[in-house]
Amino acid sequence: MNKILDADIPFDLKNTFESILSLTLPKSDLDSLVGANCAALSPLNADGNIDLKVFQEYYDWFIPEAGLRGLMIGGANGEGDSLTTTNYRTLLRASQNFREERGTKIIAGVFKATRGEIYDQLKFLKTQEGKYDYLMIALPLEESLSPTELVDMFKEINDLRLEKRFVLYRTKLSKTDVDINTLIKIHEVSGKKMMAVKDTMEEERSLYLEYANSPEARARFELYQGNDHLFTKVFRTLHELGFTNFGNISGGGNILPLTQLRQILVASLVNSFSSHLGRKLQDQYGTLADAVQKTISDFYENSLKPYRNLIGDKELGGRRDASILKRMITYYFPSFPTRPVNTKLKEMEDEPQLHSQVNNAINMRNKYLLDYKELQMSHPN
After folding, report:
1. Which of 92, 63, 94, 32 shows the shortest CA–CA distance to 248?
2. How large is the greatest C-alpha to C-alpha distance in the chain, in angstroms?
3. Residue 249 belongs to a domain
4. 37, 22, 70: which is closest to 226 by C-alpha?
5. Tell me: the pLDDT tens digits for 31-69?
C-alpha cells in the first residue's frame, strides 16, 4: 500500500468515527442505497487499460475507511461515456472482491450520449446482472428529449426486462431535463424499477421542494441529493416530512476526507433532530453540521471550479472533474494514474494548491471529529 498514513483518522478518534457510522450506515440489508456511495474513478495505465492493481488497492482501502455503502462504476466521474466495453467489464470484475468480501453494493453506471448508446449499454449489462446490485441511468448527454420521448425511452428500457432496480441521474451535464410529473410517469412505465432520482442541479433548478410537496412522488421513489452544496438544506427539508434515510452517490467522495466529512455531517444532522438530547444539544449538533457543510462547499469551490478549464472546454464532453480528483488523490496515494479516459481532455498537471486543499480537508475532518466527540461525551448514548 502506497498511501500516506496521515490520511487515516487518528487512533484516538477512530471510535468516534465508528459511532458516526452506526448512525449513517443502514441497520439492515434492505433494497436501498442508504448511506454514502461513491462514484468511482477509472484509473488507466500507460496502455489505456484499467489499472486493475491500483483500482483494487485503492478502493479496498478506501471503502472501510470512508464507511461506504456502495461503489458505482462507469458513471460521470468514472467517465462512462468514454469507457470501452472491455474496460467497463474489467471494472465490473474488479469490483466483485468488494461485493463478496465487504458486502459493498455495486452500482453499474450508464452514462452515455444518446438513447441508442444507453440501450446498447443496458443490453450489455443484462448479460452481467450477477455482477452488480443496482443501475444508475443518466439522461442522454447529447440529446434533448421531450417528456413524452423520455417516457417512451423508459418504456423501451423496461422491455429489456432487466432485473435490477435503478437510480435515474438528473444532471446538468445532460441536454435533457425532467420534471416531477414526468418522473412519476417514468416510475410507472419502468415497472416501478426506478427506486430513486439523483439530482445534481443547482438550487434554482433542484427538485427537492417539488419533491417535498408531492406525496405521490415521495411514495414512489427516493431523492438522492447529488449537489453537495445543498445536502444540509435538503436533509432538513425532507426530515421534517418524516424521511430519516438518505442516500448520496458522490464523485467528490473519491477524496477520503470529503466522504468522512459527509459522514460527520449526516450524524450531526441526525442528532440535531434527536428530541431526547434536549434543545441545547440539538442546536449544538446543528451548528456543527452547518460548519461541516460550509467546509465541504468551500472544498468544491476552491479545488474543482478553478481548474476545470485547464482540463478542457465543457463542450469536449466527459467529466472534467475526474482528472482533478485523480490528481488530488495522489496527495495520499501517489501511484494513482491521472490521465483522463476522454482523450480530448487534458491530464491535470501537478498542482500544489490541490494537495493543499486535501491536506486542509484532512485537518478539518480531524477537528470536526474532535468536536463531535466532545458533544458525544456530554450526553449518554
Report:
1. 32
2. 59
3. yes
4. 37
5. 678 788 999 999 999 999 999 999 999 999 999 999 999
- Mean local confidence (pLDDT), 299-313: 89
Predicted pLDDT at 253: 87
Q: What is the dihedral of CA 46, 52, 58, 63, to 10 degrees?
A: 150
Question: Which CATH number fits the domain that encloses residue 79?
Answer: 3.20.20.70
> What total number of domains does the chain contain?
1
| pLDDT tens digits, one per residue of 224-275 | 888 888 889 988 988 888 776 667 788 888 999 999 999 999 999 999 999 8
| Contact criterion met (CB below 8 Å) for 372 and 267 | yes
Domain that holds residue 289: 5-376
Block residue for cell numbers 460521470: 76
With respect to residue 312, please indicate whether it lies within any of the assigned structural domains: yes
Coil, strand or helix at 247: strand
In a domain, residue 381? The reply is no
Judge whether 206 lies within some domain: yes
**Residues 215, 199: Cα–Cα separation, whole Å:** 18
Residue 211: strand, helix, or coil: helix
C-alpha cell at 354: 490541490
Q: Check: CB of residue 348 under 8 Å from CB of residue 326.
A: yes
pLDDT at 216 over 90: yes
